[in-house]
Amino acid sequence: MIDEAEQLIAEEAKPWIEGFSTLDQKLIRDLLIQQINSHGPLGKPETRETDLRVVKMLVELRNKEYPELRDLFVHLHGSYPDGDAESGKSVLKQETVKNPTDRRMRQYPDVTFGHPADEKLRGRINTISGYFLEVAPGVKHFKPVSSERISYDFLVKTMSGGVAQMIPKAWQVNDDALWNQYAETACRMVLEGIRTQLIEAGYLKDADRGHPNLPPPPE
After folding, report:
1. For position 106, what pLDDT does the model report?
2. Counts for the chain of helices (H) and strands (E), in that order
């Protein structure tokens, strides 16, 4: 099994992997084998529900706070189109992200938005397992489980552009308000990050902020 995983690892990536502990290196290889045997699994129903909530939230925040991105940053992969489970449309397949220097290295983010014609301008989100740790009175930080963190780090390394964020699986968080706060912050970071990259790529001007390039959705 390890030999099979090693075939997926580019030579320039091996020093990065070897920087982890022996246990974490094994987790990385286990994740690679999982990806070989399962092409971007959608996960259990509770996980799919989190993905759906993330898509809905990102669409709503984009339309309300970043209307200039409505046709420049669209839902491409993962969950139902635009988070509408009642549309009758099929679930969008998860994106396959290939390393630009070694096409055998692949990752499958749970949700992907992006420019319709520019693969470098993508916003990718992994919904991951973990828990919130109180680091000070009233202050909680999210701590992902080790294997999920490694998978997310590997996604970031595999990407050739765009932005990425991780969001906790909602069903593992007892405090819905806390989940919403964390998820909204992550979604805004994706939107702000991709907006900056769209400006740098010449698709948008900073003066366009708040000016929709499509008619606003009906009330």
Report:
1. 76
2. 6, 8
Sequential DSSP letters for 103-144? TT-EE--SEEEEETTEEEEEEEEEEE-EEEEEEETTEEEEEE
Average pLDDT over residues 141-163: 86
For residues 114 and 119, what is the distance between their CA atoms, to the nearest angstrom? 7
Helix, strand, coil percentages for the chain (3-state, nearest 5): 45, 20, 35
CB-CB contact of 178 with 132 (8 Å): yes
List C-alpha distances in Å: 162 to 98, 126, 127.
13, 14, 17
φ/ψ of residue 199, rounded to 5 = -65, -45
pTM: 0.76
Distance, CA of 177 to CA of 189 (rounded, Å): 18
Q: Beta strands 163-168 and 118-128: pairing type?
A: parallel
Strands (E), 137-201: 139-144, 163-168
Start-to-end C-alpha separation, the chain: 54
